[in-house]
Amino acid sequence: MKKGRQSLNMKKRSSVLLTLLLALTVAxxxxxxxxxxxxEEGTGDSEDSDDSIVLQLGHGAxxxxxxQDASEEFADIVAEETDGAVQVDVYGNTQxxxxxxxxxxxxxxxxxxxxxxxxxxxxxxxELGVVNLPFLFSSSEHAHEVLDGEIGQDLLGxxxxxxxxxxxxxxxxxxxxxxxxxxxxxEDLSGLNIRTMENQVHMAAFEAMGASPVPMxxxxxxTGLQQGTIDGQxxxxxxxxxxxxxxxxxxxxxxxxxxxxxxxxxxxxxxDELTEEQKQVIWEAAEEVTQYQRELIAEMxxxxxxLLEEEGMEVYDVDRDAFQExxxxxxxxxxxxxxxxxxxxxxxxxx
Length: 351
Hints:
Elements: H1 2-42, H2 47-50, E1 53-59, H3 66-81, E2 86-91, H4 99-108, E3 113-117, H5 118-121, H6 140-148, H7 150-157, E4 164-179, E5 193-196, H8 200-208, E6 212-215, H9 221-227, E7 232-235, H10 237-242, E8 251-267, H11 268-272, H12 276-310, E9 314-317, H13 320-326, H14 328-338, H15 340-349
Parallel strand pairs: 1-2, 1-3, 5-6, 5-7, 8-9
Antiparallel strand pairs: 3-8, 4-7, 4-8
C-alpha cells in the first residue's frame, strides 16, 4: 500500500509540474506577442513605414548647384507634410540619365520626378519652346510673371498629352558666353565654334549672330574646351562656376542672350498612385521650393561672379542691344510655330 501511494503521489506531482510548464509556456508566448506588438506600434518600424511610397527625383546638375538644395528641400517638405507616407530620394548629376532620358522616363514611369532644361521638354510640347527665344524677357521679374501666370501654366499643361505633369518653372539663370578671346559684339563670333544644347532655337540664334553652334553633351564640354575643339560655350553663372570652366576659358561676356528656366515635372503614372491629399502636398511643395530655388540662384550668381574673377576669369558687360538686333530674324523664323500673338504678348508684359 505504501508503495502504491508513493507511485500515486509521484504521478500527481508529475501532473502538477506538467501543468505549470504548460502555463509558463503560454504566458511567455503571450508576453512575446505583446512585446512584438508594442515594438511595431512604438518604434516607427511600422507597416506605414514599409508601405511608404518612394519617389525618385533626378536632375543633371552637380551637388553644389542650387538645384540639389531645392530638390532636398522638396523631399523634406513632402516627407513632413505626408507624415512619412511619401518619401523622395534625390539623384543629381545625371545619375538617372541625361535630361532627355529622364523626361522619357517620366512617360515610361521609370522616373517619378525630374528637373530639366526646357530643351528636351520641347520634344513633348513644342510650343513650350517659345521661352527659348533670345532676349524674350527683359528681367527675371518679367520671366517669373510670365511663367507663373496663365501663359506659363498653359505651356506646362501641354505636357499632359504625353503623360507628364508640369509642376512649375524653376530657374537656371541668364545664359552668358565664355570664350577664349574677348568679344564685344556679334561680329566677334564669326567663325567661332560655340557649344550649345541640342536646342533648335538656341542654335538658330547663334547662327544669326555669326557663330557655328555645336550641340554637345555636357559631359564632353570641359574636354572640348581644353582641347580646342570648341572655342566657347554659353551657360548661366552657377554652371560655369561649379564646373570650374575658368580653368579652360579666359573671358566671360555677360550677354544675357537667353533666360533659362528649368521644368519641374512628374510622371502622371506616379502622381496617380497618390491620394488627393498627397497630390496637393506635391503641388504646394513644388510652388514653395520654386521660389526658394530662384532666391538661391540670385544669391549664388552675385557671389560666384566675384569668385570667377578671383580665379582669373575676366568678367565684363557687353552691348546687349547689338546682340539682340542680330537675332531678330529668329523671331520671324519661329513665329508660325509658337504664334506671333503669343510672342508679342510675352514681350508686352515686359514693358
